[in-house]
Amino acid sequence: MLNYQADNYGKADKEVLAEGIGAALGKGAEALAALPGVYPLSVKHAQGGLFCLIRTSSGKYLALAGKGKAAGRYVGETFSGVKICALDAANAAALRETFPWTAPVPIGKRASFGTGDRLGVATPGHLLAFEGRRIFPVLAQQSMRELGRTGRTAQAVIDDAGWGAFQMGYAGTFAADADHIKKIDEALSCYRLGFTMFTIDASEQINLKAVRLSDEAAVAEFRKIPAWREIAARYTGKSWNFSRGKLALSINFSEAELARSALVYHAAVEHMASLYHELKREAGGEGNFDFEISVDETETDTTERDHVFVAVELAARGVQWQSLAPKFTGQFQKGIDYIGRRGEFERQFASHALIAEKLGPYKVSVHSGSDKFSIFPLVGQHTGGYFHLKTAGTSWLEAVRVIALKNPTLYRKMHEQALERFEQDRATYHVTTDLGVIPDLERLEDEGLAGLMDIVDPRQLLHITYGSLLSGKNSRGNYLFREEIYGTLYDHEQTYYEMLERHIGRHLDSLGVERT
């Protein structure tokens, strides 16, 4: 992968490295790739220029030599005939023009896997895990909540994934998921930045209070919806019959069942359809973006009847979607394995997968998918390998593992801060973390710190508080840990990449993702 064996090697001063690059140019691309500090897989010829990513004592830069038409697009300083360019938004945009494969594209009808990268430095490790796998990587994936907590921008999510792809010389395809979009302005803004997938969170429009209405009250309320007759006509006297192997489903709607489904989901369907058509107009038509329906941010499971209702109503409004995320039985807590009855999950998941196959086909999407190893084989089996799965926190936790291993002093400070912040930060998460069972760090040797990331409670402690750890500041307005977190991971990026390759690879193996 890199042309050095140990972490923290090859970090020269950028001017000195530029001189070395200039001297190596006359010897060819192989000599340049062998130069310490140059990421060898990034060495590329294009449009009369020679490009590579370099590792210096002050961070990573793009180096380019030549006077072709591409060189003028980039902004930087020139040393010894080599232009050294910051990895900023302007140069990232230029990179996408020069090397189109550093820009995300829609997924379409392919199995896919999202690797949310809260730090913006994990893409090379993710690509190592995806190498040779029959699955479409979503390398750029962040929610609006994550952006707020990490202090990153949506533009940086796109750019950082592109730089990571360039570093690895990855000329394949990848997508960018604007996750948990609730508002049209969020969707349009992200589309204009280059996002290609939009996960629509309609939880604010889902009316779960209707579940508790009596049959008579539900029907009466349903008939207050202006389009209730039009909706009813799509279901009255109709039945949906699906089968595959030994699994068979027959779904129909009584008057009360239809009324209840409509009261719960009608406003959500209208909201999602509105966002879809706004995006379609902005994108210039269907096929230029992926659209995911999310109804998982609720307290009650999505029934098979609910799934059919949402799908039929969206189709009636001209929506074309690539994936749908139901709310499954059990608990999908962050960064740990599935909690619940595996047999009941399998029954429910198989039914949703069958509906998605017959009404689409579209993918069943599994959210909060990090580390759900006990159910991954079921996801792969019942979808025939045609699914979407989202992860994010697990890559952050592998970064924490690196810090615990390589900079235990920093980890101890982060752990202490996490304990102070946990009760406040857990407000937007459903977790069952017991702080009382987390080992006392004063009794733990440095060598044992990394192992905390294999234990449920400390793992969730560090997961839930990521925003406070990355964005927390002291009384002088300086970050508490941010610079040292990034510095440690930069010094030990090889270790981080290897951990990501192994850990995300374990996810893919458990899901049954084949190698080419």
UniProtKB/TrEMBL annotation:
Top EC class, one word: isomerase
Keywords: Isomerase, Metal-binding
Keyword tRNA processing assigned: no
One function term, GO molecular function aspect: metal ion binding
Catalytic residues of the enzyme: D179, E292
Catalyzed chemical reaction(s): keto-D-tagaturonate = keto-D-fructuronate
EC number assigned by the record: 5.1.2.7
Stated family: Belongs to the UxaE family.
Function comment: Catalyzes the epimerization of D-tagaturonate (D-TagA) to D-fructuronate (D-FruA).
Protein name per its UniProtKB record: Tagaturonate/fructuronate epimerase
Naturally occurring in which organism (per UniProt): Candidatus Glassbacteria bacterium RIFCSPLOWO2_12_FULL_58_11
